[in-house]
Amino acid sequence: MSSLNTKTGHSMDWTKYHRLADIYGYLNYLASTYPSRVELINIGTSYEKRPLYVVRIFNRSSSVVKPAVWIDGGIHAREWISPALATYIIRQLVEVPANEALLCNVDWFIMPVMNPDGYEYSHAFNRLWRKTRSVTSWTSCRGVDPNRNFGYKWGGLGTSTNPCSDVYKGTRAFSEPETFATSNFIKGKASSIKLYLTLHSYGQAALIPWGYNVVYPSDYSDMLELAKSAVSKFTKYRYRVGNAAAIYYPAAGGSDDWAKSIGIKYSYTFELSDTGAYGFLLPASNILPVCQDFFPALDVFAAKVATMKV
Ligand code: 0X9
Ligand code: ZN
């Protein structure tokens, strides 16, 4: 099969995991093809100088600022199903007319690959790479765990000071250009972003803050209720729902906790398929089933966000 689909002018599909150039090429194609619905925002540059892109998907039906959903993928390099799902969601929202209602009352900010250096490294050199690719101190070990590098309870449980560890927290909160740029962008939109969704794998679970320890926010029951009704839309895969530290393990400096800490009421980490048979090495034949199962949950999230005041 030729890599360029001559009918659509881009090479995106969900039968394989794509390199960064394909994903970024698709984002550029969407932005130039649908300027009234898509804005491609360059929010910064990775350690290895790759652009960091956020896609804003909107419907200019009115000039009022709408409540917004944030979705990111690819915090962890090897969790390839995450950028694949984020890209699938972008396609559904932009190119599938049946989904137009999802744009009526809600804006979407989607960052499919937060850690592009790690993502490319996992394709080219080490399939199980997790972290960024920054050079750390005097050791030959590279990279910081972006999900231990956010600035809430930074350096607490489940983090490491050892640059060779896969959960190395970095020299300070937001030491990584990727987490720094992302957090600055989200902070600038914090009054409109009502839901923070970060896509990881694996385990089939919806994780709710706090994750730094088994501690529950005062509005935990609201967060639990929304997550339960979202995962009730899944028909193919069963997801567990619960406190991140309780049903996974305590880990501080996560993006979910940070988003919650700045006042985004609904903040979740979704650990996608599978439950361990293939783990990070989920075969590409699973991409479409996972994406198709997940997408209807966005109806639930969008309906909730649409009711929230900006
Ligand atoms: O450990 C992580 O960063 C996440 N699991 S993963 O296997 N994708 O690495 C879980 C993070 C849950 N959230 C917090 N602990 N804050
Ligand atoms: Zn992860």
How is the biggest beta sheet arranged?
8 strands, mixed
Helix coverage percent of residues?
Answer: 25-40%
Tell me the strand percentage band.
Answer: 15-25%
Rg on CA atoms, Å:
18 Å
Q: Give the tally of β-strands.
A: 8
Nearest-integer average pLDDT: 96
- Our measurement of the CA-to-CA distance between the termini, rounded to an integer number of angstroms, reads 46 Å
Describe this structure as you would to a colleague:
The active site is at residue 271. With 310 residues, the chain is α/β, with parallel strands linked by helices. The protein is built from nine helices and eight strands. It has an eight-stranded mixed beta sheet, sandwiched between helices.
Short descriptors:
binds N~2~-sulfamoyl-L-arginine, alpha/beta, 16% strand, 310 residues, globular, 9 helices, binds zinc ion, eight-stranded mixed β-sheet, 8 strands
Topology readout:
Elements lengths: L19 H14 L4 E8 L5 E7 L10 E5 L8 H15 L11 E5 L4 H9 L52 H12 L4 E9 L3 E4 L11 H12 L8 E4 H4 L7 H7 L4 E7 L14 H8 L2 H10 L4
Parallel strand pairs: 3-4, 3-5, 5-8, 6-7
Antiparallel strand pairs: 1-2, 2-4, 6-8
Helix pairs in contact: 2-8, 5-9
This protein binds N~2~-sulfamoyl-L-arginine (0X9) and zinc ion (ZN).
